[in-house]
Structure formats: C-alpha cells, structure tokens
Design a protein that fits this description.
By secondary structure, the protein is α/β, with parallel strands linked by helices. The protein folds into two domains: about 170 residues, Rossmann fold; about 110 residues. Helices cover about 50% and strands about 15% of the residues.
Length: about 300
C-alpha cells in the first residue's frame, strides 16, 4: 500500500529546497535512476537555474511552489535553516518532507507534521565536495534514514534501493550521536593528514608533496581494514609492541611543541586498546610498557 496521495516511485515528483552540492548530486543520481526531479528552490534564482541546467526536466521555483508541485520534498539547506524553512512553507496531507541533515532532529519538521505532511530524514554517508564525483561513488554507499511513518519508510527504502545504496535505519533520538561518529571517517581524516603534512613541513617538504606521499598509505590502510577488520589490519609500532619506537616518536614530536606531542599520545593510547583485540594481540607486558612510555613522555612536557 502506498502513502495516501503519493504515487509509485517511478511517478513520484521529487523536489529540493536548497540547491547546493548535496542536492545537486542527489538530484542527478535520482534522474539517472529514472526518477522525476520536478523542481528546485534556492536562495539565489541563478543557482536554481544552474542546478536545472544539469538535471533534465527540473524547473527553478520558489519554496512554496516546490511544496505545491512535488510529492516528496528534500530540504537540503544548512542545518540551522531547516526549521525556519519548514515553518515558512505550507505543506499538505499525503506529501512527504524529508531533510538531509545527519544531526538535526526530525522535530525541526514539526510544522510540516502540523500541516498533515509525513516527515523523515535521509542522510547519505558520502562526501559532497564535488557533486559529480559524489554521484559516481554514491552506488554502494550507506544512506541513513529515519521515518516514523511505516509507509514513508517503505518509500525511502525503495528510493535507497533504486539508487544502488544500502539503508541504515536510525531509531529516534540518536541523530547527533550518529553524526558525531560519522565525522571520524570523514572530516577527521582531513585533520590527521593535515597534522602529518605539517610535521613534514618542518624540514621543508611542500604540503602538496607530503600529501601525495600520504594518500596511497591512507588508501592502503582502508583496503586492509576492509579485508581484515580494524584490529587485525592495524600497522605500526604499537601493533608490534615496539615501545622504543613509540618513545622516539613522542620525543621527536615534543621537540616540535606540546600540541604535536599531545595529539600523538592521545591517538597512540587508543591504538593500544585496539592492538589488544588482534588475533595475535599484545601481551600484558608490552601494553604496560607502551602505556607507561606515553604517560612518562606526556607528563615530561
């Protein structure tokens, strides 16, 4: 049974309020999957028109027109604008309003609920820095969805399947926790690589040269994790119980400043826990020695 007033997936009129990179990637992916993207609204008309230039059959509209002409509307604005955008639009019974924020509660769409619309969340676990690259890498990725109504959940599930993705259904109340976790394999990788690049810069290596050297290592690490899991794929001195090398690292970084040392010792301490989970895990003596080394070197500053 379909939602009241909501067509089947292939006949669904999809709209976007917010014409940024995520919206564009999702619209192109929907269109490529044979779905109808009917209209888009953006703060700047020229942005909406540029969006439509890349999505066949899409028309530039205002937010109210998107609501009036579409069955499923994605709100793809900044997180802090979702609630005010939802409150500024008149919705109708039988349609669905879905935001694409990872952290924002569905309560931001309560005004749409009061108008009789169904509401949900739809958050692709993907980077959208380059929309066209995101479209290419979207198939196979996970989309985290939330829908209190079972029929909306069914439609979103069908959409996720049509896009070639996998559904991760979120229970109520965990969105901020979920989104915080997603930061570790996304933007925190940027921070880790920036720290590595900055260390190499201390002897004059250009940032772009250092980054080019580190990226194959990062890709190889991800491949190993996929093949062997987090613990058994972990490389490095901690995985070998090599406290002497850990001490050398910390001493060298301490010479560069306490921030470098603290960052390293914090991360290295977590790797001890992970190393103990390996099939050929560290023995207790090795763990104690490395933890003592990190504690001594941290307190010495």
């Amino acid at each position: 049974m379909m939602l009241p007033g909501l067509p089947g997936l292939s006949d669904l009129r999809i709209g976007f309020i917010g014409g940024g990179r995520l919206a564009l990637a999702l619209a192109i992916a929907c269109r490529s999957a044979g779905l109808r993207v009917a209209s888009v609204a953006s703060r700047r008309r020229e942005s909406a028109e540029a969006f439509c230039g890349q999505v066949e059959g899409c028309r530039a509209s205002d937010a109210q027109a998107v609501s009036a002409t579409c069955d499923l509307v994605f709100i793809t604005t900044r997180d802090d604008m979702i609630e005010s955008i939802a409150a500024s639009v008149r919705w109708r019974p039988g349609m669905a309003v879905v935001h694409c924020s990872g952290a924002t509660s569905l309560s931001a769409l309560d005004s749409a609920v009061r108008d009789g619309a169904l509401t949900g969340g739809f958050h692709p676990m993907q980077s959208f820095g380059d929309p066209l690259a995101a479209v290419r890498s979207l198939p196979g990725c996970v989309i985290s969805a939330e829908a209190p109504d079972a029929e909306l959940a069914r439609v979103l599930g069908e959409l996720i399947e049509r896009l070639g993705c996998h559904a991760n259904w979120l229970p109520p109340g965990v969105r901020a926790r979920y989104h915080a976790a997603a930061g570790y394999p996304s933007q925190f990788i940027n921070v880790l690589l920036r720290e590595a690049v900055s260390i190499w810069s201390t002897w004059g290596v250009a940032p772009e040269v250092a980054l080019k050297a580190f990226l194959p290592m990062a890709r190889g690490t991800l491949d190993s994790i996929e093949a062997r899991g987090l613990a058994d794929s972990m490389p490095g001195p901690v995985s070998r119980g090599d406290a002497k090398t850990v001490a050398a690292h910390v001493a060298a970084l301490d010479a560069l400043g306490p921030a470098h040392r603290a960052f390293y010792t914090s991360l290295c301490g977590r790797t001890v826990d992970l190393a103990m989970e390996r099939a050929q895990g560290l023995d207790d003596d090795a763990c104690r020695t490395i933890r003592a080394t990190l504690a001594e070197e941290s307190s010495s500053g």
